[in-house]
Amino acid sequence: MNFSEFSFWWVLLLVSVPFFAVRYGCKSLGYWPDKLDSVGLAVLSLVLFVNADKTSFAVFAFEIVFNYLMVKWMLGREGKQAQWIATALIVFDVAVLAYFKYLTFFVEDVIGLAGGVSPDWQAGFPLPIFQSIPPGVSFYTFQMVAFVVDSLKARRKRPIKFLDYVNFVAFFPQIVAGPIERRGSLLPQIQGFKFKFTAANFDLGLRWLSLGLFMKLVLGDNLFPFIQDLSPVADNAWLVWFNAFLFTLRIYFDFAGYSFMAVGIARVLGIRLTVNFLAPYTSQSINEFWRRWHVSLSTWFRDYVFLPLMGKRKSWAPFYLFLTFTLSGFWHGAAWNFLIWGAYHGALLLLLRYAGRPFSRAMGKYVKRPQIVSWAMTFGAVVLGCLFFMETNIGLLMTKLTTLVTPGAYSLGNLVGAFGQFSANELVALGWVMVLAGAFLLLEHVAVWQERPEYDLLLHPWVSRSLLGLTIVLSANIPSEFIYFEF
Amino acid sequence: MQASTDPKQKDPQPKLWTWLLAIGIAWTVGYIYNVHLGGEARWLKDLYQKKAIAARAIEPPKLIVTGGSGAHYTINSEIIAEAIDRPVVNLGIDGPVGLDVILPTMLQHVDPGDIVLLVPEYLILLDEDGLGERSGAFAIATGQGLNQVPPKQLVRDWIGIGVPSLRALVKSTSDLMTLGKFSGYYDDPLTAAGDPTVDKQRQGDWWQLAIKRPATAHAIQRIEQFRTEVETQGGELVLSLPWVYGKTNEETQTNIRKTAEALGAIAPLLYEPETLNIQSDVTMFADTHYHLTSAGREVRSQQLAQQLQEILP
Fold it and tell me: What is the pTM of this model?
């Protein structure tokens, strides 16, 4: 669901107002079976999904019924039989994802490398070709796959009601872009669901929602036009770095903002979702960064790819770690730059594994506060990684990388010229966004130093209300698309 | 690392009204800025109100020229008034306000004996629903055409009119510091007849506009309805194709011809059949493909005056 699109809130209002009015009336007369809360949630989720994207909903409707029937069949079987059903279902789910997401890339960029693909292959292909992935497929496929594995491993294989399964997979705040929830955390909250509208839930939900709205609409969306304007610049090293830095900020504010809005909306309904980001830019190592960044995806890859691949071959852990990160890069998009980005982070983790401790010891001898250096190096590495992530044009990416290693591209003329890219008003606006972003990140750092929950200061009651007020006053008037909707 | 959704500061008795207070204060600040200080809605409102005063000051029978900014920046009222011997008022507003809001707003200025010359730019004619991105803002700021905007768009625009945006605030602050006042696109002074007094300069490169479709069924139907409404009030509707700095390719010409046919079936249509009002001299255009320089407006007004003389009794 696109929370920054008015259409989402409008449909939510149109469905919710009559539903909750009827519920209130029936409840006060004692004619409201609790089961209708589950039905209401399912209807709300499905209507919002149809409103978001009809194609994606059609795919989803088929997948959810098929997955439910297969899981039900699997739960009624034991041992190898159950494993075979699970394997077949996972292969099917991944194949659907691959069809929507990777088919064009595979045919044109992989087979096409050998030169054996005709330019009009799409015309002769027996299935429709999608130029962009229907929203949500990447996320709900992973949630369904995790559900299959967790159900297979569950000690008590009790059947699950269809309505509960629909609410588990289709829960509207998180279906399109996560967090990717697990059976163990979300299903118990969904089974026999009842709306828990309490003042405390409203207050906490609004605090998370305000935080997410501020990150997305004020910080992320106000950075977007600058990134777009600077993206074609490939010959000025200062600007290439600066643009990657701006993108690093934006992708966090955009995606974490979305995730926090999901947490907030779910909390208003009485559901606790996974907090998908834990102040990742406070990290002092790449290891730590990946424990704080897109938590539900990182743990998904750990539990359903890395650990099963490695099995008992612990000595091969580095190889499987690298492979897992490369695959996780590829999950983000069907393009070479995402593969490079995943491999880059895998390589960084291996570098840290083998050279991290000796480097820390050496640094500790010469530097008074090595944690600041560690933080700066980690953040710098993430910024460089973002250059791979943001640039889907491989030719332009290579030009930018060449610029970064060309000493002449760091000339004083280029530095002065960098300021000439924008008008005075644009520079002032950019300055204000940077001040707000800096203050925001500083509050995360302070919370981490004080060993509080990462967003504790930003979720303070009065800070939350101020953030909402600032969002109303400072939001970009043309919201940009959520970056992760493309994945 | 902690992954709890609950911050430490849990409020056992949260005061939910404080959320409404925060929203209310911020939205009110935004509304005041947008409608009364430096926001786009303020300049639209001022533009319309100045023109409405001009229209009221003129005794009927008069000629009302209306449409979007393409109409506002297309005429010199004095030249036309002199030629046709009746007062002229320029009631062109802004294309993105949309036909469905512009037309009912204009209707209240029509008196018996008036002639209404509608010069709609293609932006308006190609619109599927008669509403534009500024329909709601204009309706809310001026109170005109509110019932023309569908509830969904109106609710969205009511919310939006309290949201100024960082960039707008930075621009306005800079204007205050450098000019000593707020400024906006439509803030230039108008003549007594509602004509613009300043030529805007184009910053980017020019290209010739292509018209890729004929006028939509909605636009044609709405203009037809407008003719009936004008006639009911004792007025008469005349239409004109806009002058546009456009392509002269087959596609554009075909689409303009189809548009001309449809408009001509509604009311007398003023245009040059040979050129279809497609202009190739870019020096007559100011900042957009429809806005003319003052010299361009003079030429265009002489042409309009002559065409009007041919059809007026």
Answer: 0.90
